[in-house]
Design goal:
The protein is α+β, with helices and mostly antiparallel strands. The protein has two domains: 49-297, 3-Layer(aba) Sandwich (Rossmann fold), CATH 3.40.50; 302-387, Immunoglobulins (Immunoglobulin-like, Sandwich), CATH 2.60.40.10. The protein has nine helices and 23 strands. The chain has helices spanning 3-11, 14-17, 73-89, 125-134, 145-153, 179-188, 244-254, 262-275, 281-297, and strands at residues 22-28, 36-42, 45-50, 59-64, 103-108, 112-115, 161-165, 192-197, 199-202, 211-212, 218-222, 225-229, 233-236, 259-261, 302-309, 312-313, 319-322, 327-328, 335-341, 350-351, 354-357, 363-373, 378-387. The strands form five sheets. It has a nine-stranded mixed β-sheet with strand order 6-5-4-7-8-14-10-11-12, with helices on both faces. Strands 3, 15, 17, 18 and 21 form a five-stranded antiparallel β-sheet that branches. The protein has a five-stranded mixed β-sheet with strand order 16-23-22-19-20, with no helix packed on it. Strand 5 and strand 6 (112-115) form a beta hairpin. Helix 3 runs antiparallel to helix 4 (125-134), helix 3 crosses helix 8 and helix 3 (73-89) packs across helix 9 (281-297). The model is unreliable at 1-52 and 92-99 (pLDDT under 50).
């Protein structure tokens, strides 16, 4: 089993939810081109992060807003949960030091349209969710995802990832935009494409996975735990998706991307909106995969990892902040400092790889850990804590 599969299995396992500390030294290999050694210490609440070049790790979300997709509130909440989870896993160190990935948004029906964020082409996950939820349902017509991909590839600012969401196959509006041409441009720009589409996935043992990797490994959701299966078969799900496999699935897989079934994400997102629930498993799993892919695209040798135990406490109750899972993969380099910002003011409040402290003021807070190594480099991450 590859490193990514192990990460996801432990990330969503009952042992992780119960707060058991599990130390894993894994090889994160989405492809044979790159290996990143990870050490994960999984607690009740835990995050890990590495410093990234934000210019090459922006992501572009492309959404079919035709009438058959329904109102996009379900997708807005799903994407916000997924990308915020991704941001908790991997710190994207932009000029403002934000902890969330930077997203572009393109919607399409007959034509593709780029959505701006106060004049900027990229925004934060909550901004993208707000724009998506406010979109009017589009009318029936021609939906050409390749036109949207072309508009994305014309962006002046570089990005490393595209997530395309559609419930239909490609209606060819411009026959000059061929599979080979789009693939070539994606590869030349080192852009990975993931697709959330209407397909039917079946494991060799008959189980129904929610996603599949290019090597045929599938992710099956069993009682809120992601487990793997092998030799996944992919076929069109009928309706208006007859050519989805050659249009989008094969394109995503050729770039090393993951293919997700649309129906489980849409069904869970719609149910979450109807029941007014704040969280659910599938978007978090999607976020974990996006984070692992981002690590694979641009690994850094210094990784900050933080956990808090317990993750929900009463005012004045003692909590343990643990940064001992932080690491560097460079030979001869070692960690020299662990610095904790407990109140979000940017100032150091505590030092050490393991810190015991308490909080008096009730509410949600994010505790920030910054680590430094013997080469003077730094990485940071944050972990969520609820004080009652």
């Amino acid at each position: 089993m590859g490193g990514l599969q192990e990460i996801l299995q432990y990330r969503h396992s009952g042992r992780a939810r119960q707060g058991a500390a599990v130390t894993l030294r894994l090889a994160l290999c989405l492809t044979s081109r790159l290996t990143l050694l990870l050490t994960l210490v999984l607690g009740a609440a835990t995050t890990r992060a590495a410093e990234f070049d934000s210019d090459t790790h922006r992501s572009m979300l492309i959404v079919d807003q035709s009438g058959s997709m329904g109102h996009l509130e379900w997708l807005a909440s799903t994407m916000q949960l997924a990308y915020e989870r991704m941001g908790a896993d991997v710190e994207f160190a932009g000029a403002d030091g934000a902890h969330a990935p930077s997203l572009g948004l393109i919607v399409y029906t007959g034509e593709a349209e780029r959505v701006d964020f106060d004049g900027e082409p990229f925004g934060l996950p909550e901004q993208v969710a707000e724009r998506l939820a406010a979109r009017e349902r589009g009318s029936a017509g021609l939906e050409d995802g390749y036109q949207a991909l072309r508009l994305a590839l014309a962006a002046e600012q570089p990005f490393g990832h595209v997530l395309l969401v559609t419930d239909e196959d490609r209606d060819v509006v411009n026959d000059r935009e061929t599979f080979e041409r789009i693939l070539q441009d994606l590869e030349e720009r080192s852009v990975q494409l993931d697709a959330v589409v209407r397909v039917d996935l079946t494991c060799a043992d008959g189980r129904k996975p929610v996603a599949v990797l290019p090597d045929g490994t599938g992710y099956v959701l069993e009682q809120d735990v992601l487990v793997t299966c092998t030799d996944v078969r992919i076929r069109a799900s009928g309706g208006n998706a007859e050519t989805t496999v050659p249009d989008y699935v094969e394109l995503a897989q050729r770039t090393g991307g993951t293919v997700w079934r649309l129906s489980p994400l849409r069904d869970e997102g719609t149910r979450r909106q109807r029941e007014r629930r704040s969280g659910s498993t599938l978007p978090l799993a999607l976020g974990d995969v996006l984070a692992a892919q981002a690590l694979e695209r641009n690994p850094r040798t210094l990784v900050a990892h933080a956990s808090v135990q317990p993750a929900q406490v009463s005012s004045g109750e003692l909590v343990t902040l643990n940064g001992a899972g932080s690491f560097t993969t460079d030979e001869g380099v070692y960690l020299t400092a662990w610095s904790w910002d407990l109140d979000g003011d940017g100032e150091e409040d505590a030092r050490g790889d393991v810190v015991a402290t308490s909080f008096d003021r009730p509410g949600e807070r994010w505790v920030v850990l910054r680590v430094r190594d013997s080469e003077g480099r730094s990485a940071r991450t944050r972990v969520r804590l609820v004080v009652e």
